[in-house]
């Protein structure tokens, strides 16, 4: 007799419950904004982390790099995987309010995969049109991002821009980009390669030609504590910070359903998947997983396993009727 799975995480008084409209917005448009999701104390801790990261980085070093995105990494205006070396970064990635929303949108079982701290000082930052699942592949394809504003993000200091509804697009494979595929080879008749994905210049980044099929993209203006949840197929980008005296600090994390195979890890992996390096942040999984390195509390499966199973029985009128079978003692 099969065992029914009734997902349920251990309860909390401050749990965020996603509305049906938020769920529909995410799956229809590819994103949803939860205003004021994170309290001031949480944002303050992440802002302090951003400042510690900034003061360690010399953003005035000249590297000679001609690719704008590679230059940003070289200048340390964005830093990956602080969650593996800093307790505050891990707490931010595993924040239960963030995971409440992720659990509802792509769960119920959730891996925490990646963290990125963006500093974006005046005159810097920006990334051209791209789709996140191009970089982090999951099978089934369940990747989702959470973009946490640590200060106001607007058109002047380089907020995110999105093309609503573009989450329904497949992943356009960049020419010469390795790391496997999201879609099965030869499964599409007209899915073409694109050039220079993430490049700031739309004349160079040919994914911009697909974006042009949509209504004009919209800016995502956020205040501290607001969180943008966005689909991994959504076309999105940002522009360099145009201000002279403002940063654009943000903390961006990625997650997926914990039943997905994850042939990826930022720091590399052995074998056919990097699942064993990803933190199980919510629910349960039959796949390998990691535990929080700094002991951050996570709210895993706390349900009751049932012994009933459901099968479909044909009726005389041709309709199907679900029938519960109970396990005999």
How does the SSE layout of this entry go?
Blueprint: H1 20-29, E1 31-34, H2 40-56, H3 68-74, E2 78-80, H4 87-93, H5 96-106, E3 110-118, E4 127-130, E5 144-149, E6 160-162, H6 207-211, E7 218-220, E8 227-231, E9 236-238, E10 250-257, E11 279-283, E12 299-300, E13 309-314, E14 320-325
Question: Can you characterise this structure?
Answer:
By secondary structure, the protein is α+β, with helices and mostly antiparallel strands. Helices cover 17% and strands 20% of the residues. The protein has helices at residues 20-29, 40-56, 68-74, 87-93, 96-106, 207-211, and strands at 31-34, 78-80, 110-118, 127-130, 144-149, 160-162, 218-220, 227-231, 236-238, 250-257, 279-283, 299-300, 309-314, 320-325. Strands 1, 2, 3, 5, 8, 10, 11 and 12 form an 8-stranded mixed sheet that branches. A 4-stranded antiparallel sheet has the order 4-9-6-7. Strand 13 (309-314) and strand 14 form a beta hairpin.
List keywords for this structure.
oxidoreductase, 4-stranded antiparallel sheet, single chain, globular, Jelly Rolls, 20% strand, Phytanoyl-CoA dioxygenase family protein, 329 residues, alpha+beta, 8-stranded mixed sheet
The level-1 CATH class: Mainly Beta
**Percentage of residues in strands:** 15-25%
CATH superfamily: q2cbj1_9rhob like domain
Q: How many strand segments?
A: 14
InterPro entries: Phytyl_CoA_dOase-like
Pfam family, one: PhyH
GO molecular function: 2-oxoglutarate-dependent dioxygenase activity; iron ion binding
Keywords: Dioxygenase, Oxidoreductase
């Amino acid at each position: 007799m099969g065992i029914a799975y009734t997902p349920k995480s251990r309860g909390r008084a401050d749990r965020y419950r996603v509305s049906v409209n938020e769920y529909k917005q995410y799956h229809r448009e590819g994103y949803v904004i939860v205003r004021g999701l994170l309290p001031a104390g949480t944002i303050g801790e992440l802002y302090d982390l951003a400042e510690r990261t900034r003061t360690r980085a010399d953003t005035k070093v000249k590297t000679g790099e001609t690719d704008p995105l590679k230059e940003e990494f070289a200048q340390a205006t964005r830093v990956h995987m602080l969650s593996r070396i800093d307790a505050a970064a891990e707490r931010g990635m595993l924040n239960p309010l963030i995971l409440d929303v992720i659990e509802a949108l792509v769960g119920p079982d959730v891996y925490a995969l990646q963290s990125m701290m963006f500093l974006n000082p005046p005159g810097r930052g920006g990334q051209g049109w791209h789709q996140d699942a191009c970089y982090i592949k999951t099978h089934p394809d369940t990747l989702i991002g959470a973009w946490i504003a640590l200060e106001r993000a607007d058109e002047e200091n380089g907020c995110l821009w999105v093309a609503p509804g573009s989450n329904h697009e497949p992943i356009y494979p960049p020419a010469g980009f390795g790391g496997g595929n999201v879609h099965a080879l030869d499964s599409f008749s007209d899915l073409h390669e694109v050039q220079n994905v993430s490049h700031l210049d739309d004349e160079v980044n040919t994914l911009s030609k697909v974006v042009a099929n949509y209504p004009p993209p919209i800016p995502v203006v956020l205040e501290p504590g607001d969180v943008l949840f966005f689909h991994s197929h959504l076309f999105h980008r940002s522009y360099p910070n145009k201000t002279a005296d403002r940063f654009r600090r943000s903390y961006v994390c990625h997650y997926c359903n914990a039943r997905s195979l994850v042939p990826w890890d930022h720091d590399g992996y052995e074998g056919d998947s990097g699942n064993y390096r990803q933190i199980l942040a919510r629910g349960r999984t039959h796949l390998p997983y990691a535990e929080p390195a700094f002991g951050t509390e996570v709210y895993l499966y706390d349900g009751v396993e049932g012994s009933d199973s459901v099968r479909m029985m044909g009726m005389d009128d041709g309709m199907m009727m679900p029938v519960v079978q109970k396990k005999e003692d």
